[in-house]
Amino acid sequence: MKNSIKTILLTLLVVLSAIVGTACSDNGNNNGNVTSPTHSEAPATDTESQAVTNITESSASPETTGEDIVGLWTEAKYSEDTELGKGAVTVKIKVVAEDKSVTFTVHTDKDTLGAALLETELVQGDESEYGLFIKFVNGIEADYDKDKAYWAISKNGEYLMTGADSTAIADGENYELTYTKG
Hints:
It contains five helices and nine strands; from the N terminus they run αααβββαβββαβββ. By secondary structure, the chain is an alpha+beta fold. The radius of gyration is 25 Å and the shape is globular. The strands form two sheets. It has a six-stranded mixed β-sheet. A three-stranded antiparallel β-sheet has the order 4-5-6, covered by helices on one side.
């Protein structure tokens, strides 16, 4: 849907630019005066016609494949593997949302996963009596109240039975934060 809207707006911009260009050009007929173009004065170019055809085709059969992925990752702070922080302990954090993932190499002197994630601003969340409830990872929101989405934490493929702020970390460990709907 967002791509269709962008395509429509881009096409309108191209058409308007062509109309303004035609209206403002001096063909030697109007002594430089600007006239309002009519349909016969500003025929559509092949490029404009193709753009309109593309919009019509994409609007007629909207594809949902990938729209959620685009939607989730449009707010992401990082879209490529990235190194964050400074410190003696290095852990890898793979962020997975839909069919896309980004791996973060986090360097820290913190003792827990939650503290390292907060220190590098990779996550944001709320503190509760049960600890840190992660709502945002890499800028991507999981809103359980809205659509039952949450961030699942695993280590070496095994889901953790502890929260991020009570999970002790050691050099060389691998974690995953997975966007999950349940």
